[in-house]
Amino acid sequence: MEKQFAYQFPTAAKASKFLAELKSGYIGFCKVKRFNSDLEILVTYTYDSIKSFDDNAQKLDDLAEQLEGQEISSY
Length: 75
Description:
Strand content: 35-45%
Structural class: alpha+beta
Helix content: 25-40%
CATH topology: Alpha-Beta Plaits
Strand order of the largest sheet: 2-3-1-4
Largest sheet: 4 strands, antiparallel
Order of helices and strands: EHEEHE
Number of helices: 2
Distance between the termini: 11 Å
CATH architecture: 2-Layer Sandwich
Mean pLDDT: 91
Shape: globular
């Protein structure tokens, strides 16, 4: 199952830090890119809902919160 979450940050620097953390493997494999502006990041990943519990959404929320960001939508 594919999941997408969009996050917004107060500054482009904090959004860039979030982007860099995810590209370094913070939650394993995911696609991450800027979304709509320099302040927004879109994260896409796939997980097997049958084999495991998905805690990645909480990890993403925690990291965003550390950088003063917030989830603005999920797909």
